[in-house]
Amino acid sequence: MSHARLTRWLLALPMGLLALATIYPLLFTGNVAMKTRREYVLDRFSVADAVRFDNVTGAWSSVGMGRYFLNSVIVVTAAVVLLLLLGSMAGFALSQIRFRGSSVLFLGCLAALFVPFQVIMVPLARVMADTGLIDTYAGLVLAYVAQFLPFTVFLMTSYYRTVAPEIIDAARIDGNTLYGVYRRIMLPIGAPALLSVGILNALFCWNDVLIALLMMPSAEHRTLMVGVTALRGQYSADIPTFAAGVLIAAAPVLLLYLFLQRQIADGVTAGATKG
Length: 275
Description:
Layout: H1 3-33, H2 37-42, H3 54-62, H4 65-96, H5 102-112, H6 117-130, H7 137-160, H8 165-173, H9 178-189, H10 191-207, H11 210-215, H12 224-228, H13 239-259, H14 261-268
Helix pairs in contact: 1-13, 3-13, 4-7, 4-10, 5-7, 7-10, 8-9, 10-14
Organism: Asanoa siamensis
Membrane topology: Multi-pass membrane protein
Protein name: Sugar ABC transporter permease
């Protein structure tokens, strides 16, 4: 075996094991969701006898998953739009406009990335309760914006720093205001980064459980990820139905990864290279 071939095998083996470790939980959950409760109790690791979707339909109708799905769509859409708007504006200002304190503001956003949500959870909940935003769409949207805005600002600032200053100067000479430069120049140039960051933020918000559970305590306003937990009782659990609920909640994320994986990868490296 040649040296190049051996190297490829040494790289492919751990990557294959990693892929298997990633795919197996999804396959296991899908297999459990196809079983009856009796099949699961008798042998949880065996292959389902038949492909059946009774558990999926039961999970969707039993605890109001349709309502939870709509709640998630509303909250995630509003949060992502606000994050992209504020993040792109802040990224443009911090990367292309020279003003006193811009470096300190950028370092502040960078430092905020290292603050876990658990540290600000109690103060945030008290502020939201005092302002009457607990158990409202607006409260959860603002909580998501507060949590994920530093990440958005960091990536957009890094991306906009790759834009040549001469482009901004030429636009100003043509008579554009700062808002005109942002709308006509920076937004079109930053479209690839905005798409990537928007996808990442949508995934973060959709997969969140802790913030949604804190901001939306009532059953009516639960998001989909929180609503899945209602399928599991305190003293008993229908595991196949619970697995079906997990599949329902994960399906939009899986489809997003499947069709937009390149944009997701670009978002992780946004602003890392020039040119």
